[in-house]
Amino acid sequence: MIHPHTEILYVNELIGYGVFATQFIPKGTIIWVLDELDQKLEEAHVLSLEPLRRKQLVKYCYRDNKGRYVLCWDIARYMNHSFNPNCISTYYEFELAIRDIYPGEQLTEDYGYFNLDEPFYCLPESGSTRTKVMPDDILHFYPEWDRKASEAMKYLNKFPQPLKYLIAPKVLDTVNAVAAGKRPIDSIRNYYYDRAIQLRAVS
User: Listing from the earlier edge strand, what are the strands of the sheet with 39-41?
Assistant: First the structure.
């Protein structure tokens, strides 16, 4: 579920739509949480669909570390990519604001931790030499992403969090311990879907 202080707006003809803040969202805010309304679809089911539906589905899905396609039920699926994002994902299946986000500002994330099926080509951005997102980006950029997520987690319990109740109970104690500085954050690298291992398992 996406944060309640957001809305979907048209960006331009090239980008299409995006998610924007309607109120001030401070650093450390939980922006999105995987909840029971989000669909998790097995690869075999997705591949069994006719091309039209499969193409649209894959466009708006990401893959978890088990290879399942996850389709967000709300406007979260319209969050756009940036190499300089203001939000970041965690291994605990929620996203955080990694800096203050102001009303009217677009919420963005790095698609590099989404286990994409194929490269995603992007517009050039100042401050980054990257021009495409690769399926194995997690393996290359996880130290930087872990550092940013860990820094944002310090603010998790500093103010009300309207989405915190949706964090999976099995990880809630761990999340609170990380926020309190009592343990290190679990690396987003653990969310990497290793296709080679999967292929060996079914062969």
Answer: 39-41, 69-71, 61-63
